[in-house]
């Protein structure tokens, strides 16, 4: 992967403030508000726009990596990277604990949300890194556990003309005790190939 620059936690702006934040400079511990989530319409019939996303500009040709750890024991606990143009156009990519399994996937929202997910139960206890690369017409999502191989998660259409921002996110739809430790946030050059 290309060389990367560390993004200070203070550089981003929250879409919705977490219940609690603590940092020693190296890591950022964020506690989700109970009921926080991001979803629009599809299948469930509701709109949730209460996620906690710490966002900084993401230009075409750039990538962002976010690394984190969490206990993954509450229904729908989630964390990863959020990429946002506006309230109706965004992507959340990362892991979510649901129905006893840890899932790696992405929700791509263009007025309505979709969802793709696959189990990564063996990632419990690992430091997880999610990487988003912004291309002129797409966002490429990759992820890995610890120092493992990068795994392609999603190739999603995304408007290259619009202004976008991205960064760490978490949500706790069903409980108030989810604490995610974000260990790294970096910006680098976007991946140039899918394979």
Description:
InterPro entries: ConA-like_dom_sf, DUF1349. It holds the Pfam family DUF1349. The protein is globular. With 195 residues, it is mostly beta strands. The two termini are 13 Å apart. A hairpin with a 4-residue loop joins strand 3 (20-23) and strand 4 (28-31). The protein has a single domain, classed as Jelly Rolls. The strands form 3 sheets. Strands 1, 3, 4, 8, 14, 15, 16 and 18 form an 8-stranded antiparallel β-sheet that branches. Strands 2, 7, 9, 10, 11, 12, 13 and 17 form an 8-stranded antiparallel β-sheet that branches. A two-stranded antiparallel sheet has the order 5-6. The chain is built from no helices and 18 strands. The relative contact order is 0.29. 0% of the residues lie in helices and 56% in strands. The model has no long low-confidence stretch (mean pLDDT 95). It has strands spanning 4-6, 13-14, 20-23, 28-31, 38-40, 47-49, 52-57, 62-69, 77-86, 89-98, 101-110, 112-113, 116-119, 128-134, 138-145, 151-157, 165-171, 179-189.
Distance between the termini: 13 Å
Query: Which stretches of 5+ consecutive residues score pLDDT under 50?
Result: none
Based on secondary structure, the structural category is: mainly beta
State the helicity in percent bands. under 10%
Please name the CATH topology.
Jelly Rolls
What is the overall number of helices?
Answer: 0
What is the number of strand segments?
Answer: 18
Number of domains: 1
What percent of residues are in strands? over 45%
**SSE run:** EEEEEEEEEEEEEEEEEE
